[in-house]
What we know:
Blueprint: H1 2-35, E1 39-48, E2 53-65, E3 69-71, H2 73-83, H3 85-106, E4 112-116, H4 119-123, H5 127-138, E5 145-150, H6 151-154, H7 158-170, E6 174-180, H8 187-190, E7 197-200, H9 202-205, H10 212-227, E8 231-234, H11 240-248, E9 253-254, H12 268-277
Parallel strand pairs: 2-4, 4-5, 5-6, 6-7, 7-8, 8-9
Antiparallel strand pairs: 1-2, 1-9, 2-3
Amino acid sequence: AKAKGKNTFHFYSKELDAAANERLYIENELRIGIKEKQFHLHYQPQVDCRTNRIVGYEALIRWTHPDEGNIPPVKFIPIAEATGLIVEIGAWVLEEACQFANRMLKLGRAANISINLSARQFKDAQLIETLADILKRTQLPAEYLHLELTESMLMGDVKAAINQLHQIKELGVALSIDDFGTGYSSLSYLKRFPVDILKVDRSFVKDIPEDLNDMEITAAIIAMAQKLNLKVVAEGVETKAQMEFLQRNNCYIVQGYYYSAPVAEQDLSLVEDKLAGD
Ligand code: C2E
Ligand code: CA
Ligand code: CA
Ligand code: CA
């Protein structure tokens, strides 16, 4: 038993070492990646399912590492967040995505751009200045910029969060609550947060039309959003049945593989053509 205990300990400590080493490796590589511009953005169309028209995009970061290839955001965003590197990376994302939106605007195409904000960025005292700076430099009218926040970022110091939200709104920027329904619920706060859009989390959408509970929850979220005068966007829509369910329940803006995966800017016109042809 003793030997086994020792082995177990050894096993876990090895695992921990491996995890800690990987974190350290990614942290170092992130610093290099920033300097060497290894990041780029993909854009996932948000589509009005009544007209098949693109109405906006979500910007999603991509990292092409010289040795590792593509490292997914779930692997490096939490480390960027923990180390604070997300503030620099996030500012780059904001600038790049606003430039993109301004190009689309000038081409007369849909130009709403949704950008994920991390908790660290949201709490950053410099955020308002950074946003104002980027809007000024890129010349993007603020109304085209939508920032996505999660419920958990707004809990904790609710008063400070509301204050920060108001300051962002004063710039003319729109606010979305991402992954709605997955956080520990802020239903009672929802009315106090000056937000514009709710994004129904993929976890509620993915088992439609098999899971009746998820259908009830999704319909309830949509109805509640409408009562509160919020727009609603469904994410993770992969099938026609899901799209039709959402449309029947008055959710018209949808995002997901059913329409398009996130793609590079130059591939968006292909997606547009495909949607127009359907
Ligand atoms: P998220 O904000 O919830 O983004 C949606 C994720 O779902 C994206 O994964 C997207 O590629 C994926 N997705 C879109 N449609 C579908 C679908 O129909 N089915 C399925 N199964 N998945 C779909 P991605 O790009 O790997 O990003 C993962 C997470 O990383 C994001 O979740 C977001 O939390 C974070 N993230 C991505 N880019 C950024 C960024 O620039 N800044 C920050 N702070 N976080 C980011
Ligand atoms: Ca998002
Ligand atoms: Ca989401
Ligand atoms: Ca998510």
